[in-house]
Amino acid sequence: MSKPTSKHTPQPVSSKTTYALAGVAVVMVALIVFAVFQWNRGSDEVRNDGYGPAHDPAVTVAMDSDGAIVLGKPNVAKTIDVYEDPICPACGQLERIYGQEIAQQVDEGKFAVRYRLLNFLDGQSGSKDYSTRAVAANECVAQAGNGPAYSKFHELLFTSKQPSEGGSDHDNKALAEIAKTAGASDEAVKCITSGERVDNARNHAEAAEQALSKASDGRVATPSVFLDGKKIDVNDEGWVLNVSK
Asked: What is the tens place of the pLDDT at every residue in 155-214?
């Protein structure tokens, strides 16, 4: 069973030189972490494989004032907070293994998901701003209110369509095409293509990083999952079902 862990930690920089060194360090840590992760995980078994993203029409999506994206049915008793960066490999692994299991719990009204998206890996993308633009694209789709379309879009961006660190990534037109494939509205597709939410996304990503820092006593890393302020151990393969109890 794969056990995705939170391994990306952004570091403050004071000059172009230290920024470059920090970038190299992030890449090296990512490679080491990936190797350790591969060694420990045992298999690529996907939880609830075949279910797909949330697809109950009663599932809605909305944005909080700080940019957090909430996916779920109205009046659910529990909401988990999921912190992710769109280009974070461990976040992609988390979504590949547990995303469909999470989707079923959302469809069944067991809990909702509050996605708090960060952009600290912008510098590790080919365009140097992919994470920010991907956060903006998530917001464009979310603000339309179609829960299943957002769930599908989010799934695609973190699984089959997730770019690799240091490689090429999606421009806004490609992001818009992915959104269209997911069933997003024409307005959402236009919003992504134009890049109209990029500035908002940058501010919201900063707010998400601050929220994560506060929740984790300054240890900012993705993916991180919380319930009622308590961090969930996503190395426990039964964590999704445990949240549902």
From this structure: 999 999 999 988 999 999 999 999 999 999 999 999 999 999 999 999 999 999 999 999
CA dist 192 → 15, 103, 232 (Å) = 32, 24, 32
Q: Quote the tokens at residue 61.
A: 């999506």
Could you give the CA distance from residue 115 to residue 216 in angstroms, rounded to a whole number?
16
pLDDT at 44: 78
For the chain, the three-class secondary structure string (H helix, E strand, C coil) is CCCCCCCECCCCCCCHHHHHHHHHHHHHHHHHHHHHHHHHHCCCCCCCCCCCCCCCCCCEEEECCCCCEEEECCCCCCEEEEEECCCCHHHHHHHHHHHHHHHHHHHCCCCEEEEEECCCCHHHCCCCCHHHHHHHHHHHHHCCCEHHHHHHHHHHHHCCCCCCCCCCCCCHHHHHHHHHHHCCCHHHHHHHHHCCCHHHHHHHHHHHHHHHHHHCCCCCCECEEEECCEECCCCCCCHHHHHHC
Mean pLDDT value of segment 54-61: 98
Tally the C-alpha atoms within 13 A of residue 59's C-alpha that lie toward its C-beta: 27
Supply the pLDDT for residue 15. 39
Long-range pairs of 28-33 with CB within 8 A, sequence gap ≥ 24: 30/89, 30/124, 30/165, 33/5, 33/7, 33/90
Dihedral sign for Cα 95, 96, 98, 100, please: positive
pLDDT tens digits, 69-78: 999 999 999 9
